Batch of 2 targets.
Target 1
Amino acid sequence: MDQPLNDLPGKLSVHGLVVRRGARTIVDVPELAVGMGEVLAIVGPNGAGKTTLVLQMALLERPTSGEVRFEDQPVRGHELALRRRMAVVFQEPLLLDRPVLANVGTGLGLRGVGRVERRERALRWLRRFGIEQLGGRSSRTLSGGEAQRVSLARAFALEPEVLLLDEPFSALDTPARAAIIDDLAAVLAETQTTTVLVTHDHDEAARLGDRVAVMMGGHVLQAGEPSDVFGAPADERVAAFVGIETMAPAEVISREGELVVLAARGHTIEAVGAGAFQRALVCLRPEDVGIAAPGDQEAESSVRNRLLGRVVRVLRTGADARVEIDCGFPVIARITRRSLDELGIEPGSSVVATFKATAVHLIPK
Amino acid sequence: MELIWEGLREAIDLLVHNKHDVYEIARRSIYVSGTATLIALVVGVGLGAVIAFKRFPGRMFALALVNTGMGLPPVVVGLVIAILLWRSGPLGELSWIYSTRAMIIAQAVIATPIITGFTAASLAALHPKLRLQVYALGASRLQMLWLLLQEVRLPLLAAIMAGFGAAISEVGASVMVGGNISGQTRVLTGAVLLEQSKGNFGAALAFGIILLAMMVAVNLLFTWIQLGIRRDVASPPEILGADAGTLVQPWTNR
């Protein structure tokens, strides 16, 4: 069973949750919980069922079967009261057609908070997100970044026990996004609000999440600390999603302590890993793979693995280049454009792909 | 042209000297059509919300019915209501036939589909997730509806204007169920009809002009309110004077 990191009972949890639309199963999550004060990031590609799951957790939709629990109590029959202890920020700011200050105070008004306190709290949270000056503006005149800040201020003004964020930054441009993520990270650290963040961006998940759950095809495939999920994905689908581009089937030849020696298409690969498996997928992140000229033994002499291959494709992206090398199986390397030019790499070049044993992640097969 | 001048002169004469009980007839028109519009507003907003938000079998049929109802022939409405309220009819015991109550019912039936149609269309045009967001802010079902109706307040005002316009300008149903009885059920449209049938074109025109003037006045009032709302949204008050609590509902703690 999935457990929050702090071993406390989940603040909000789902149990045997299934959502079907017609014959299609959108979400099927046996157990998932977010612990008190924890930030759980649910990551996955588009169409993974993340939004449907978060709508269930926000008590905005009912499941086909299974249940949501708040502080380990079933929510059925208490949805309105519990929704008033939570707040949700969607991808779109979804502000009402009224001034910003009134927008931020709306949820408080629904909870019966008096006018003076409503105003004071709305102003405090607008200030906290650096947009106090927008209080009198109509919500229709805001930029995307401003509107999303108002949406966040509106959620935090409710001082929720659980905050649910559904792709809140995906409609923003890069600078606006970076700035708002910085502010949110600071506010979350300060308030220790129990949070569920849904995103398709692993950087966002790793930055904000105390724990990450990878969701695909309606299922949670892996949940754990960001370093575990991103560094040691449980299967090929998770590996591909978290940015591992080289995956080669290999057989174990020998073991010496934690050092495992494997054979893959005529190459010998050294890796670090535990377990009694005989076959495994050798997984590598492109940024962990270096490239050397075939005769250059000096280059990166500390690496244990040197695989001779031929460059198949070179893709220049910004300051970097993505190089696909055929070593009997495709190996993907990401190097700087400067290295690319210095080594004179182009399709057809013979090169050596280099990587450390510790850079290899093994998925037992 | 001479006839029009005569009508205008007669209209002024009617108003100045309160001939043909013009003020009473005008008051009755406002009362009957105003009450009918109010009833249509309550029923129409409710039905419009159901059509906009609920998924139920026959929803498309209901929507087609409402769209048909927006152009409901008043004489057909009058006929059906008259049959229902006729002394020997199913609701005959109420003795409402040839009363202002019967006229209010008939006009409400005419105005309701108009307000329903406008409400359903404007609520359905809102961002589909806005309703979820409002629920997520902690709204009960009634609070959600109240907040979303505020979002569509401009089209809703247009709906009220259209509904009131349809109610006050129809004549067939009112005469059929009200009887056009002097001092009891005569309204402006009925007065126009009566005077025209007697060949008093001047008086008929005078009542017509008063009816038009009243409709213009009512629509001016609503348009002024509409523009006021637009202005508020476009240039809201200074922040420190702004009211964060425009949301005050009687059911806040429910």
Target 2
Amino acid sequence: MTTKLLISRRKLLQTSAAGAALGFLPYSGSVQAATSATVGFIYVGPKDDYGYNQSHAEGAAALKDIAGIKVVEEENVPETVDVQKTMESMINLDGASLIFPTSFGYFDPHMLAMAAKYPKVQFRHCGGLWNKDKNPMNAGSYFGYIGMGQYLNGIAAGHATKSKKLGFVAAKPIPQVLLNINSFLLGARAVDPTITVQVIFTGEWSLAVKEAEATNALIDQGADVITCHVDSPKVVVQTAAGRGAFICGYHANQSPLAPDKYLTGAEWAWGTVYKMFIDKLQKGEPLPNFTRGGLAEGFVKMSPLGPGVNAEGRKQFEATLAEMMKGGFSVIKGPLKDNKGKEVVAAGKAYPETAIELESMDYLVDGVIGSTS
Amino acid sequence: MAGEIGLWGVPLAILGGAIRVSTPFIFVSLGETITERSGRINLGLEGTLVFGAMTAYGVAVETGSTWLGLLAAALSGICFGLFHGWICKFPKVNDIAIGIAMMLFGTGLAFFFGKPFIKPSAPHLPAIAFGFWSTIPQVQAALDVNVLFLIGAALSVLLWWAFKNTRAGLIIRVVGDSSDAARAMGINPNSVRLLATGVGGAFAAIGGAYLSLYYPGSWNERISSGQGLMAVALVIFARWNPLGCFAAALLFGGAGALGPSLQSVGVTQGYYLFYATPYVLTLAIMIATSSPGRSLAGAPGELSITK
């Protein structure tokens, strides 16, 4: 609500000052002039939520010490036309020349529309599938292969579970979430092929009561290790720990919330990515349109292992991590069936983390109890 | 942790969900019943609830005492309620419009002051283990009943009795049904409404405190999923009867638990539809119990929506 008021005020200022603004605002579209620049970050939730938004805000905070870079941020921006207004006010009022809209739903149509309207401003979206043939060249996307982290979570969980049943609280059945669920199961199955993962979709990125209910329902059905893919895992972590289940974290390090029950977690390290973009911007080099990286590139990291991981688990976890750091590790490899019995990856075929096919995943693999619709 | 309980998980989750999720609805709807029985509508309770959640969490983090947090929330709720009541006493002021303004004001203020409290963890309100007789951990977990739920249940009976049998209850009802009759009795309707709105605000803020201090037990800007607004609707659904409010809140909480628990036992298709159950249920009962031939039974005569 408050953001709406802010925007309308900004809108008003913007329209009244439009003529003047065009004259002097630093549209640093030509990259050579960009040693000083204003960079905009847009978050869908509060930026200190122990989760997705916090991971981005920490990345943004890493830029504040760089000389000549001014960071502007706006939080709690819905994935609606509101985000377009936020982008316009960042461009026209703050003079932003590079914008990072960080939430999945900002990409299409909102960021693409803005990129077409402001061709001199650079837009880089987190998680979208930027397409060279269809999308504007001043737009682009970056993401990390955090599915690898969920595979490692699965290994830790596989060693900790006694009921052989793991729980996953997921927001929406989009490709990145499905890849995480599948990777978590496959990691656990690398320990014990009888393990299953029960998934509950809450339908929204942030719904505290429903996430708590989902966690309780999973534990009621016998799951004894819980992980999640929601914007703020805080509620899931606290509820699961309260019921005595182990937890694998996501987005950021949640171990302070449940030090005894926290096994490990897949965390983002966005500072690496944002510093890379700023470095290129300041050197006057073109910004890459399609950026991806994993554990080896420092885009993703694992939380330190907790006391719930036994020696055997620690050994397998570290060996797999070392294997992944070499690059080319494949979590999704054939023969692989989905949970409806259809073959989705043929025998002999393997998709390393870099495979673009993984970013349009639409199935849950055999062993996951749940449905994508 | 015990093994499978299979399909029994669904009724158990509905029971557990009814107990866990219903408390904010109980408190907000009881508070709103008091306010509406006195002839005024306070739509701002959503804002009061969010502000109460923030206040309770913040005070609990700072002092380490959940009870102080609860007390602070109740006081903040009284302030919001009194403010609403005070503005509405001026002539030609629309209580619904003021309520919407108070809702935005309350949530905005809570977000502003709540920033530093998103990260720290606060202690939780105590629960009483009514499941001690069972050896099944799922049953034990479902029957962990928070004290606020019990207080809410007791309050709904007490209010139901008080509206019928006490002088205070009679005064609120008279003011709510006819200002003229109240004035003839020597009662100032505005003072009664002021107090009733203040008490209603305190109840709503306690409902918010339950959200942040017990279930889900965390403060952030998304903590409320519209409980404050839904509870105001539940009052009409319950026909301004405190016992009805309690039942409606239980029904709503239980229906809300249906979606996640069905997925957990393997009914995975169409979960968006199951998530709509509470709202579909509310609509269905509203349609079934309403009639174009008569006005709402039990509606206070002075309410701006019935006048």
